[in-house]
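Form 12-C: Joint structure prediction
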Amino acid sequence: MQRALLMILCVSAVTGCTWLAGGPRQGTSSSLVAFLYPDGEAPPTQQGIPHLLLPVRAGIAFVPSTQYGTDSGLSEARKQDLLKRTKEAFVGRDFISSIEVIPETYLRGRRGFEAIDQIARMYNLDVIALVSYDQVTFSEDTKASILYWTIVGAYFIPGSKHDIQTLVDTAVFDVKTRKLLFRGPGSSTLAKTSTLVNSAEALRAKRDESFGLAMDDMTKSLNAELDVFRERIKTEGVATVAQRDGGGGALDLPLLLFLVLLAVIRRRLTT
Amino acid sequence: MAALGTANDAVVGALAWDRLAIADGEFWRLLTGHLVHTNWTHVAMNLGGLGLLTIALGRSLSARRWVVAAVGSGLAIGLWLYFLTTWPDTYVGLSGVLHALFATALVVATHARQLLALILLLALCVKVVLEVAFNGSEVTESLIGVPVVTSAHLIGVAFGSVAGIWYRYGRGLIGH
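Section 2 - Result
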């Protein structure tokens, strides 16, 4: 009986080694809806049509995780690098004057559109792109992990398998009307085997890589969505645009109506 | 004439009020900027206003006085934008001049219909002040594709009022 118990303990200890590195399923996420509507309030139904002054001043930031204390697997510096990479894909577009990369820490203190308003005022932004993410990792031991029993195998046999699935989604909002202009998703799926002793390090590296690939995928789709949005402005009138640097003199409609009235009165008086 | 530049970007580029180009010596832009427009809607709004103004108050002034007031106000707005503002970089449109002409005609009209003309002049002043305070109308902005330079309207009304006072009470140095 004691031998059987000892065997069970040993098997559990070895096969559970990968799990001990963080459990078979780990995840990290940030929710855009939970960030913008922290008290569960519904978005306002009537927000008006966004009016964009071109070229627009844009900002981009990661949505802070809604689960306090969870680790996204990415340092703040790495997040900044990823956002800068996305920014580079949009620099040079003639209707974008600047893209500010906003540290996630700036958004941690407050939630909701009040936080967005603060950031927009601080950076002088017209639109803001909020990047939310969801990353799930599955770790399990392969049949080869039986060699972990040998101790040496724990160093040399890649008996731990990690699957990493990452989804990022960028939603671009007009700050003034708080209306969603367009969004672009990106995803990545990676698999990696590692030795037991290298398991945590390999997992961390792959999580990082998966984030990078998902961000690249998102950047492509965001670029495409931006072109679609430009067309929708022309065809569906989803937003109105005007040039920021130029100016024009135009009689507004109330004054024109007033002049019509005045002209009619004048004609009546003279006839 | 006000529609001059809408059909051709090169024409608009050559005639628009442009801060850098004026600094380079293209002084005609101080005046010609008022004659070109961003699009046909912009043209229609301003030409419509010019037509209505002509119908309503056309007889208040001689043709010569209309022209002098238009050129003078155009120049005043152009210079004011150049020397006393940092925005816009470019400007097109006749409405600043139209505001000036409206104010001129109203001041002159106080001779015949004092109360009505004064009320209308006051309403025009309130309108341009509110415009400046609230940055103009987004509807107009989206129709013409650029922000409305409301301060040009304000300067137009100010210059037009001075011109009207000159015509009304001056010795008539500029025609009759």
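Section 3 - Comments
The longest strand of chain B covers residues 90-92. The longest helix of chain B spans residues 63-84.
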